[in-house]
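Incident log, support desk, overnight shift.

02:14 A customer reports that sequence design results differ from what the structure should imply. Their input is reproduced verbatim below. On-call engineer (initials T.W.) acknowledged and began investigating.
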């Protein structure tokens, strides 16, 4: 992980899948304020997803991390002794470290040190499959690494040689930084092009004028499983963090009317700002949705659920989607007994309890989503000539159930249509 270059293969931080004794064995470290929640369980899960074994843990209670070494000097001495006994070859910190903290901690411990941001970026790199996803992750990694240059381009140890090339020239670190900035500029241009392509695709959907629902939530809450269960899609699903990076949109019929349901990248506590910036085009889907279905893991403890919900709410505010109407969906209730379900309903009376795995509660969720989207519909009263059969067929497709009456002049239709589509049939409008 020393060079932190983007990876697209393997499951470990070194691109290798550990076999037997783990090749990378991390000692987990966190600084937590008095009364604050310990989140090493989440760091353990992140490392597990990255293919790194956790071999020990240490938590220091203090108001703020030490500005130079993250841990206080006494805790560093304690950590040295723990490291010697644990067979660790890596130290993982549950916060983003400044370059100074990282360098000083490595010097004090004599082992490589990685922070939470580096781990999350590495996981994103190994899970990115589309061209856009790979560009986004590479951009995020380069921006993170820019302040931490350690010879990412070590093949440029020597700059030229011979007549005309001697002189002060650039130092290696200056060259690295210049190359990194050039690559960042190139990636941003390419992502702008991708953003333009996505805008064209979005414009096509907006011309269809179908209401959009975005599945948002903490990573591994089961959003992709719900997408598959609700729409019959076959999106890949695995029990690991950040399995879905690229948004997937499928048609969801509610009350016979087509809607668009989009699965989005999962959020997490302390999501690196580099990723929020890099995935701006992807997260645009969330900002533009008429309704957000906030999916929470209903099988975890109430304290964990509150932490997850708070992290998602904070991220939605950060990306400009905090004002979007939403429905709380508590997933994975198949893992709960009757008493736990009753307590969940008591604590979250406005939520919908579902299991994407077994299908329980999905009809209730469909009914709730349909009710929440009623404000996007508009009643229309039309008289469609018999000769215009194509418009009649389109009305049935877009409005689902319609009331129709055959008259000598044509077919009288009363229906509910998405408001943005109603104008398409204005020429047939008649008084109710």
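02:41 Re-run completed on a clean worker. Output:
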């Amino acid at each position: 992980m020393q060079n932190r270059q983007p990876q697209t293969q393997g499951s470990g931080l070194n691109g290798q899948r550990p076999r037997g004794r783990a090749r990378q064995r991390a000692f987990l470290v966190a600084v937590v304020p008095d009364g604050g929640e310990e989140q090493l369980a989440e760091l353990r899960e992140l490392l597990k997803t990255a293919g790194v074994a956790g071999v020990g843990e240490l938590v220091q209670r203090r108001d703020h991390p030490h500005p130079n070494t993250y841990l206080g000097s006494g805790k560093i001495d304690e950590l040295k002794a723990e490291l010697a006994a644990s067979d660790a070859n890596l130290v993982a910190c549950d916060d983003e470290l400044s370059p100074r903290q990282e360098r000083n901690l490595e010097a004090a411990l004599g082992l490589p040190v990685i922070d939470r941001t580096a781990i999350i970026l590495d996981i994103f790199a190994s899970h990115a499959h589309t061209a856009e996803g790979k560009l986004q992750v590479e951009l995020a990694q380069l921006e993170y690494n820019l302040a931490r240059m350690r010879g990412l381009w070590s093949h440029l140890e020597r700059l030229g040689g011979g007549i005309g090339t001697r002189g002060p020239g650039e130092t290696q670190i200056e060259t690295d930084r210049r190359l990194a900035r050039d690559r960042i500029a190139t990636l941003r241009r390419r992502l702008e092009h991708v953003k333009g392509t996505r805008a064209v695709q979005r414009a096509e959907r907006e011309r269809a004028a179908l209401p959009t629902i975005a599945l948002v939530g903490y990573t591994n809450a089961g959003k992709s499983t719900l997408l598959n269960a609700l729409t019959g899609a076959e999106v890949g699903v695995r029990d690991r963090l950040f399995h879905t990076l690229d948004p997937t949109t499928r048609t969801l019929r509610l009350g016979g009317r087509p809607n668009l349901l989009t699965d989005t990248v999962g959020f997490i506590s302390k999501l690196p700002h580099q990723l929020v910036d890099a995935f701006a085009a992807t997260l645009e889907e969330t900002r533009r949705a008429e309704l957000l279905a906030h999916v929470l893991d209903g099988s975890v403890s109430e304290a964990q659920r509150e932490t997850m919900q708070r992290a998602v709410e904070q991220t939605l505010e950060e990306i400009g989607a905090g004002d979007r109407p939403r429905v709380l969906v508590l997933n994975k209730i198949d893992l709960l007994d009757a008493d736990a379900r009753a307590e969940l309903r008591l604590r979250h009376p406005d939520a919908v309890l579902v299991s994407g795995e077994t299908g329980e509660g999905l009809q209730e969720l469909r009914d709730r989503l349909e009710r929440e989207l009623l404000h996007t519909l508009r009643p229309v009263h039309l008289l469609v000539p018999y000769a215009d059969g194509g418009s009649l067929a389109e009305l049935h497709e877009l409005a689902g159930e319609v009331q129709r009456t055959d008259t000598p002049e044509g077919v009288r239709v009363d229906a509910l249509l998405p408001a943005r589509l109603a104008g398409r049939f204005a020429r047939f409008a008649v008084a109710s």
